[in-house]
C-alpha cells in the first residue's frame, strides 16, 4: 500500500469508533474477495519500456459525465458523517480541488444538492455523479433521479450488484444496524410511499432487472453508468441497454464472497465491450502502481473507496486531499518509470503475471 494511505489508514483506525471502522473495513462472508482485490494486484507486474522520455505527462481523461484530471475517481461509499462531522461536504471539496469526480452515494449523510454545491464552491466546473440503487417502486426511482438532476449531477451510477445486501460478519458481531442519532441517509427523506427498509440495506430490491435500466434511460438524459459488472455477457447487455460506461466492481468485497478479484474480471469485460463504452475498475486500488496496472488492462480510470474514508476519518477534507494527491503523484511516477509519455502508453502487453512470465493476461 502507498505509505501515505497506510499512515492515514492507521490514523483513521485509531480515530474511529471500532464499530464504524469495521463497517467501513469489512467485507462479506469470510472476506475472501476483500483480500483478493488487493492480493490480485500484487500478483501482477508491469514491463517497463525504455528510452521513451517525456518531461511531463498528461494524466487527464474525459468520461461521459466529466473530465478527470487524473484517471481516478472516488467510488460511492455510504455514510461519510460516520467518519467526520463534515461528511460528504469535506469529501466533495477535496475531490473538486483535486480536479476529479466524486460519485456521491444514495446513502449519503448529506443531501445530494448540498454535496454538489460544496464541490462547485471549490470549482464551478466540478462534476459530481449520483449513485443509485434501483427501487422496486418506479416512483421512488424517479424521485431519486429527479433529486440528482435538480442538484446538478452530471451522471447517474446504477449499482447492479446488490439485489440483497451482503452478509457482513463484523457488523453482525457488533450488532450494527443503524446510524447513530443525528445522522440519516439524507437523500432518502420524504420519498413516495414512506421510508425504505433498514439503514444498512437501504432500498435494495431483489426484483431489479434490465427493465429498470430501460426505465432509467427514459427517466433521464444524463449519462448512465452500470456499476458492479463482472461477467462479460452482462457488459455486452449493458451496452445494448445504452449505458454510457461500465464499472467493473465486486463492491469492494462486500457482496458475493465468491466473486473474482475485480482486476481479474477486468480484461474479459474490456474485450467484450470492444471500446464502445469506457470501463472503470474499482476494488483494491491502494497505490499508483495499481492504477497503472488497471489502465494497462484496459480501464479508462479506477475508482477508490476505502482509502478516501480513511483520509476523511483521519483528517477531514485535508485527509481526503492527501489520499488523492498521493495516488496521483505515485501514479505519475510509475508511469514515468514504465516509459509512459501518457495514458495511451499503458497497454496490455506490459502486464506480466508474476511467477509465470506470461504477458497480456492476468490471474
Ligand atoms: C463502507 C462502504 C460503503 C459502500 N457503499 C456503497 C454504496 O452505497 N453504493 C455503492 O454502489 N457502492 C458502495 N460501496 C462500494 C464502493 O463503491 C466500491 O465498489 C468499493 O469500495 C471499491 O473497493 P475499495 O474500497 O477496495 O476501493 C461501499 C464500499 C464501502 C467500503
Ligand atoms: C447503505 C449500504 C447499502 C451501503 C453499501 O452499499 C455498503 O455498505 O456496501
Output the keywords.
363 residues, alpha/beta, three-stranded antiparallel β-sheet, 12 helices, binds flavin mononucleotide
Strand order in the largest sheet:
4-11-10-9-8-7-6-5
Integer count of domains:
1
CATH topology annotation: TIM Barrel
Main CATH class = Alpha Beta
First-last Cα distance: 20 Å
pLDDT average, as an integer? Answer: 95
Extended strand count: 13
* Distinct ligands, ions and cofactors found in the model: flavin mononucleotide, 2-OXO-4-methylpentanoic acid
Estimated radius of gyration: 19 Å
CATH evolutionary superfamily: Aldolase class I
Runs in which pLDDT lies below 50 for 5 or more consecutive residues are none
Q: Compute the number of helices.
A: 12
Oligomer: single chain
What is the level-2 CATH architecture name? Answer: Alpha-Beta Barrel
Binding site for FMN: 76-78, 131, 159, 227, 249, 282-286, 305-306
Keywords: Flavoprotein, FMN, Oxidoreductase
Cofactor: FMN
Protein name: 4-hydroxymandelate oxidase
